[in-house]
Amino acid sequence: MELKQFFTYLLVMAGSTYLIRAIPFALMKKKIQNTFVRSFLHYIPYTVLTAMTFPAALYATNNLWAAAAGLLVAVLVAVRGKSLTVVAACACVSVLIVELLLMQLGQ
After folding, report:
1. What is the count of structural domains for the chain?
2. Is 89 contained in some domain?
3. pLDDT in tens, 70-79
């Protein structure tokens, strides 16, 4: 790739990512009063994070059953109100146990 082409791509990407962040700030002059719009905007970061994390959690291991077990344990521990470190540790241990059990069973 030529240097000129690289910088053209870089400028297009920088411009497009900047614009999708800057346009809402430029258009919104006052605070949003509509409760539906406010609640919708409140949940967008959680929705995006879930959409990015969920598929990665299922394909993080070579075995779908171990990944599903880890995800299930992580959700259960998180619902109980434990910290992120405890949730991650429990999920990792459950994946390890399931993978070891599946190796013993010959799968």
Report:
1. 2
2. yes
3. 999 999 999 9
State whether 73 and 101 are in the same domain: yes
Q: 92 and 60 in one domain?
A: yes
- Report phi then psi at 60, rounded to 5: -80, -20
* H helix count then E strand count, the chain: 4, 0
19 shares a domain with 48: no
pTM exceeds cut of 0.70: no
Residue 99 CB partners (closer than 8 Å, separation 6+): 61, 63, 66
Say if CB 94 and CB 73 are below 8 A apart: yes
pLDDT tens by residue, 55-69: 888 888 888 999 999
Contact (Cβ atoms closer than 8 angstroms) between residue 99 and residue 66: yes
Give the domain range for residue 60: 43-105
Contact partners, residue 107, CB within 8 Å, separation at least 6: 63
